[in-house]
Amino acid sequence: MAIWKSQAPTLLDVARLADVSLKTASRVLNNARVNEDKVIRVKAAMERLGYRPNELARGLKAQRSAAIGMIVPNLSDPFTANAVNAVQEVARANGFVVILASSGGDVDVERSEIVSLVGRQIDGLIVAPADSRKDSFSDLLPNGVHAVTFDQQLRNADLDSVTVTNRRGTREATAHLLGHGLKRIVAIGARPHLYTCRERVAGYRAAMKAAGIEPRVCLVDHEGMLTPAWLKDQVFDLQQADAILSLNWVCTILSLRGLRELGKTAGRDVPMLSFDDFDLADMLTPALSVVKQPAEMLGREAATLLFERLKGGRVEPRTLVLPTSLILRESCGCRSLS
Amino acid sequence: MAIWKSQAPTLLDVARLADVSLKTASRVLNNARVNEDKVIRVKAAMERLGYRPNELARGLKAQRSAAIGMIVPNLSDPFTANAVNAVQEVARANGFVVILASSGGDVDVERSEIVSLVGRQIDGLIVAPADSRKDSFSDLLPNGVHAVTFDQQLRNADLDSVTVTNRRGTREATAHLLGHGLKRIVAIGARPHLYTCRERVAGYRAAMKAAGIEPRVCLVDHEGMLTPAWLKDQVFDLQQADAILSLNWVCTILSLRGLRELGKTAGRDVPMLSFDDFDLADMLTPALSVVKQPAEMLGREAATLLFERLKGGRVEPRTLVLPTSLILRESCGCRSLS
DNA sequence: TCGTCTTGAGACACCGTTGTCAAAAATTAC
DNA sequence: GTAATTTTTGACAACGGTGTCTCAAGACGA
After folding, report:
1. CA dihedral over B240, B245, B248, B249, signed as positive or negative
2. What's the pLDDT at B1?
3. Coiled-coil region(s) at which residues (chains A, B) (predicted)?
């Protein structure tokens, strides 16, 4: 057991106890060549004092922190939570810690968080950008600090990034709904300034165009605007929806609730298909059909890309696109499936 | 705009550019008394160089890092994600960052993460312990680093902690089910070594005892063991359940799925009430009645407790117990409600 | 005009660790 | 046994800031 002094022991304390120089203790710590007997003495001293190297000091000297930053808009979204989980795992495996920050979807907060993280000498950064209209934030990153974006993609792609096949996802989803004979399919989305939203809308439009049907897109600036009244006016009265394609998780939740308040049941009265899977989507009645994103894999790949970068190697930015998958349950009209 | 040199600029660079001493630049940075004109020169130099103070160096000198650690078993649980969110917000407001780690519910991982975080000189720690049988981990914390536990509570409570009224929560829930005339209520839980599990079971037992009915508790060591077959054998065949009280989120999900595989619908065929609310619990059919935990508040209070500690002040450990609330929807048998 | 007080600014050491380099010790060769 | 080598070790200076102390300069009253 360790003997606690009033202050945490330093390497100097260890060295003194082991009766060697500071540097020798440091060498033992770093597995450099040191005589067997001194190694033993030093290790014993470390054990006895309960010595823990000060990573701050180590990082200061070595100009690195063995920490990466991660900025997400909102942890409550299960997609994000899963991605964060995966990143954290990969980081741990590489001996890094993750400093987590959430931007609340606000670019200014995002930028200020980046500045704060950079001040903490993070070695790398993983961001799910809050706004993809803006130019990349690489102007905030000092030389040598690399960043990877995921989920969203920035305009001037000078960064590694990982996204999913958003466009194909909604295209296939829309085509599927069309296959059920549905025509007045309304796409509901929020935050049209986001890359994902634009891409998903594009996929939807492509499928509608291919079918020769006029697309009906209803977007709100912020999810908060998606109320039952809005749903009634915009989606049903104005667009005469006979099916709904929800473009993200929050929209799905709000649509589901809104629909019920209007006395309709999603999937029964109004066929519905949503982007992003979540726990219990399969337990809704009818079970919700979705476009599933590989959230954990997204996080894992983003982290892997970052660590490859940190180890040196690649130069030009790389973009990874992971496949979405259409999970057909019941709400899209596929009642036949169990 | 900043001029990027190959290396990030240091305070010395600033001082040289402003033609003042290093210390004066430092004074400007810390708003100490400095002549007006030098302040201007230094600030201009900082602006020009895009100077950002090195928090590692600052922290090394000041023996603090303005970072707190947070360890949770699993981010995928919405309860946890919300708590983390709240902690992060409070930390940010106090100028701190959060280093997030997940233990995966493994005490050894938890302890090793704590050691790692301590090495990074965190100023405080917030933990949702992975095992509440074990003694507190305060042996791992150096002098001056305080910790707060939340959700779970450790045996030797030498730490601040925030929990909810687990016992009252299940007691009221059970009483409610009993009020519907249900008798063979089976409590389903996992990880019986956890404080929350024990407390929730205790609340359930108390209510059953008060009603003079034999309690029926079915616990599994790990959630993975909760399969449809187990549900059929243990819960229905053996205990002849006519109602289910699920003691946590994962059990709820698995019970819901298991029930369906057995051809039953939770809430219709088998009344059900669950601990922990989640998005879309209200959209299940029938809507799931739950005991709701104030997750964000839990996180916020935990962080607040920690920062109070950091500012000095209290000495003896404090335990905060936040109220759960019974949210009656339909699955408990309250069909009458909307 | 001199001494005292106030204010501002620089020199220096230090936080805990590691890179550099040269000295000391151990090993080998002759 | 001595010289040439190899290894092991320690002194010293960083890394990027801040606390302490001292000293210089300006303000003020007598």
Report:
1. positive
2. 45
3. none
pLDDT at A146 over 50: yes
A residues 213-242 near B, CB within 8 Å? none
Cβ neighbours of residue B121 closer than 8 Å, sequence gap 6 or more: A54, A55, A56, B59, B63, B64, B65, B67
The pLDDT of A29-39, averaged and rounded, is 92
3-class secondary structure, B106: coil
Q: Where are the beta strands (DSSP E) in A17-123?
A: 67-72, 97-102
**What local confidence, expressed as pLDDT, does residue A38 receive?**
92
Q: What is the tens place of the pLDDT at every residue in B305-329?
A: 999 999 876 778 999 999 999 999 9
In chain A, what are the domain boundaries? 11-53, 62-164+295-323, 166-293
Class of domain B62-164+295-323: alpha beta
- Give the gyration radius of chain B's Cα atoms: 26
Task: Report CA Rg, chain A.
Answer: 26
pLDDT at res. B225: 95
Contact residues for strand D with beta carbon within 7 Å: A 20-24, 27, 33-35, 38, 57, 60-61, 63; B 7-8, 10-12, 22-23, 26, 29-30, 51-54, 57-58, 60-62
**In the structure, what pLDDT confidence band is assigned to residue A338 with cuts at 50, 70 and 90?**
very low
Indicate if the pLDDT at residue B4 is higher than 50: no
